[in-house]
C-alpha cells in the first residue's frame, strides 16, 4: 500500500475551496444568509482525529516492537483505510472552509467568521492526524529500496521468465 499523495490532498482542498466560495456566492446572490458551520462540527472533527490516532497507535507499537503480539492484518488495513478516508474528508473540509473565508473577506462588511475558522483548523488537524495514522499502519521496512511497498516474499509465479512446473502443463 502506498501513502496518500499530497497532490491529491491539495487538489481536493482546491476543489473544496472553489465549492465553498461558490456556495457562499450563490447563497448571497439569492438573498440568503451565508453558510456558517456549527461549532459542533469542529469538535467532531477533532474527536475523529483523536480516534483515528488512537486506533492506529497499537498497530505502530506492534510493528515497531518484537515483544508485541502480531496484529491482525485485516484490522491494520481497515484502520489504514479509515485514516485515508479521514484525510480525504479533512482536505475537502479544509478547502471548503478556506473558500468560505475567502468569500467573506472579499465582502465590504465582514461577518463573524470564528466558527468557520475553527472548522477549517479542525479539518486541517484531522488531515494531518489521518496522514500520521496512515503512516503508523505501514510496515517499517518500506523505503526507497522497495518502491512498490512489497516487503513480503515473492510468489513463485511472479516472474514471467521462470519456467512452469510439471503440474501446470497447459500454458
TrEMBL record:
> Region labeled Disordered — which residues?
145-171
- Alphabetic keyword roster: Membrane, Transmembrane, Transmembrane helix
Q: Which Pfam families does the UniProt record give?
A: DUF3180
InterPro entries, sorted: DUF3180
Q: From which organism does this entry originate?
A: Microbacterium azadirachtae
Q: Which residues cross the membrane?
A: 35-59, 79-106, 112-133
The superkingdom listed in its UniProt entry is Bacteria
- State the name under which the record lists this protein: DUF3180 domain-containing protein
